Amino acid sequence: MTGLSMSILAPQVRKHLSADALFRLVQSDCARLPDYRVGDTEIALADALMSAFAMFSLKAPSLLAFAKERAEGNLHTIYGIERVPCDTRMREILAPISPQWLRPAFKSVFRQLQRGKALEAMPWLDGH
Q: Are the C-beta atoms of residues 79 and 23 closer than 8 Å to each other?
């Protein structure tokens, strides 16, 4: 094997498919949603939505477990959340939100994954 390179080929990194890029995409879509609440609100709707997204993406087993993450302060750095609501406040803010409002954020992420061919290796059911 003379003259052949024995280097390991690492997969090409696609920055638009990184967690940071996809989280920013979700955050920008959440920020575009109109806030249904009237008056001065101390926690932005986008922060409440991103907090819920963070809770699920971190696979927190409960709101209490998520509260511990909240206390550590990494949510601002990773998810761009300015103010994380407590569990009661999160429920109050998000309860009136229709899942249909979140469809654009889902579509944005899904579109990025399709364009980046990140879903090609995933199994599909009946071609869907």
A: yes
In the chain, where the domains are located: 43-115
Count CB-CB contacts under 10 A for residue 68. Answer: 10
Specify burial of residue 57 (Cβ count, 10 A radius: 0-12, 13-18, 19+): middle
CA 27 to chain centre: 7
Q: How many CB atoms lie within 10 A of CB 101?
A: 16
Contact 66, 58 (CB under 8 A): yes
Instruction: Name the percent of the chain in helix, strand, coil, to the closest 5.
Output: 55, 0, 45
Q: pTM for this structure?
A: 0.77
Rounded to 5 degrees, what are φ and ψ at 86? -70, 170
Tell me the per-residue pLDDT of 87-106, one tens digit each, with 9 for 90 and over.
889 999 999 999 999 999 99
* Phi-psi sector, 10: left (phi>0), alpha (psi -120 to 50), beta: beta
User: Sign of torsion, CA 22 25 31 33?
Assistant: negative
